[in-house]
Amino acid sequence: MKILNQPIKVMAIFHPDGKIQPIRFRLDEEAVTVEKIIKSYEEKLVGNKRVVFVCLHNGKDIYELKYEIDSSIWFLFKK
Amino acid sequence: MSDIIMHVDVNSAFLSWTAAYEQQIGFERDIREVASVIGGNEENRHGIVLSKSMKAKQYGIKTGNSLMEARQMCPNLLVVPPNYQVYVRASKALLEFLNTFSPDVEIFSIDECFMRFTDINREQSIKLAYSIKEQVKQIFGYTVNIGVSTNKLLAKMAGDFEKPDKCHTCFPEELKEKMWPLPVEDLFMVGRRTQPKLNRLGIYTIGDLANADFNLISTLLKSHGRLIYAYAHGHDVSTFKPPAPIKSVGNSSTLKFDVENAEKAHTIILSLVEMTAWRLREAGMVCRVVSVSIKDSNFAYISHQKKLPYFTDCTNDIYKNICSLFDRVWDKKSIRQMGVSVSDLEDAKFQQLSIFKDRNSLNNETLDKVIDKIREKYGDTAIIRGVFANRDLQPLLGGYPDDEYPGMSNIL
User: Fold this and answer.
1) B105: helix, strand or coil
2) Closest residue of A to B18, CA-based?
3) Could you tell me if B142 lies within 8 Å of chain A, comparing CB atoms?
4) Kind and range of the H or E element at B15?
5) Using CA atoms in the order B41, B43, B48, B52, what is the torsion angle rounded to 10 degrees?
């Protein structure tokens, strides 16, 4: 797993109950569909809030998406 | 049951915050693990050590050293620039978190605060301190020191006993054992000026001071002597202040070059006042005391203040008064650092009208409001004073988060 922290384009559903669900994102001109979110939690390192999504790809590869609340930017954190 | 006071202090705050932030944005390095410092920009003459890692401390690097000195002590030192947005956010988040434990949290500086608990015994408080420390580490990713005692002074002394990532107590009965053996310069409010004076009297530890003759200390060091004598005995009468309304607003800056003529100095005062007056109006306050401070190239420091016959928040009024103060106090030596500040603040909502104000004051106040709105909408430098056009001087100087080291207030 490599740490990237790369800002990316993401399609996500913002549910009425406040839950966020990423659906698809773009990485190097290629659209990747989020197959499964294993878990999500909020991290508050140094007070900077980010919602972390640990996701599964191809049934085995794990990667992390992070949504930064203050800046409203999505990051592909680890792949 | 008496109150329990905790002092929470972030270990090498700027460095820890930078390190935790770097981890969040995916840096593989951890600057806490190597000899590193947070240092300002040397080109702009802000090249001092703001914060150091434990490894750097082992080389003898101290906060406030110049970066050049630091590099001489440790040749492969890693210097990381500060990021004040991160620090302010970290500080606010910590405060918010601590507020969930007690409504009484008093901010002491950007990285330190006091908490008061009223209905808790000592064992519980120690347990709580440990739990707060661990939670901060887990949630925010950096370590804190917590000192537990019955007043603010002892709590602060306890927090400084041993770092990092520790909880200490210093209750009045532990005073002799824990605080008295320490060197006298470790006592709060004993600095580099007082230490030699005390050493000359044969006072080297806090215990020496506590056992010294009160009259001697009092005669020699006046009120400050009486204060530190009381501190050495663990007596501290300071009360717990709720989040107080601001008492003063000020800005200062170390200049890129030494200033030698009055005209240029006035221009720099104007740029500082622009910022200060803006912040004053933003806070919805008016001021009655204005002051100026000057540090010359030999690091000698002078300051001067003046009470106005009226309250004002007008940039022009403040600027004119500070300039006249400056002209009175400046000894024509080249200036390294300048600062302005305003105090004796009042709510701007209700004001006594004054006949002493400049005739144009009312017009200028309206003008200020318009300028503020333009700056808010289009950026700080959307509209600037003519004197700054085509010049190397910044139209607004200083600010918050400031480019200066946010100092600690010296009153508990």
Assistant:
1) strand
2) A46
3) yes
4) helix B13-24
5) 40
